[in-house]
Design goal:
Order of helices and strands: HEHEHEH
Strand order of the largest sheet: 2-1-3
Shape: elongated
Number of strands: 3
Length: 131
């Protein structure tokens, strides 16, 4: 008996991007990575996704030097060689995105963006309910 054929280990999204890269379409039809192409990407947006609890002190110290103290915390840093080196040291723990200077947010601005709007909205009243 022959063994069953193992299915392809490439995800469908990766297959579509692979075919998109080798297609004969013009490059203007390909999706762009950055939403705004008029301003250059000058900052890193760094978000801690993995915890550093069981890691050596060197990794924890690198995260502290980047200004990250807890999971899902986001910080912004300009493109500099020392920041790039720190990111490379903890690359398995963080998600890094290149963003323009216009989308850099301070800690206070990030907090205000997470807050819900004041007041409330009436979705349904008891009179509207059918019994």
């Amino acid at each position: 008996m022959l063994p069953k054929r193992i299915p392809s280990l490439v995800w469908p999204a990766a297959q579509s991007s692979r075919t998109r890269l080798y297609s004969t379409e013009s490059s203007s039809k390909l999706p762009q990575n950055s939403p705004s192409t008029d301003s250059p990407n000058t900052h890193y947006r760094i978000t801690l996704y993995r915890s550093a609890i069981a890691l050596p002190k060197r990794y924890k110290a690198t995260l502290v030097s980047l200004g990250i103290h807890r999971r899902m915390q986001t910080v912004y840093h300009p493109h500099t060689p020392d920041i790039a080196g720190k990111i490379l040291r903890v690359k398995e723990l963080v998600l890094v995105q290149n963003v323009p200077a216009s989308s850099v947010r301070t800690k206070t601005e990030q907090r205000w963006e997470r807050r819900p709007q004041k007041g409330f909205e009436v979705v349904k009243t008891l009179r509207d309910m059918k019994w």
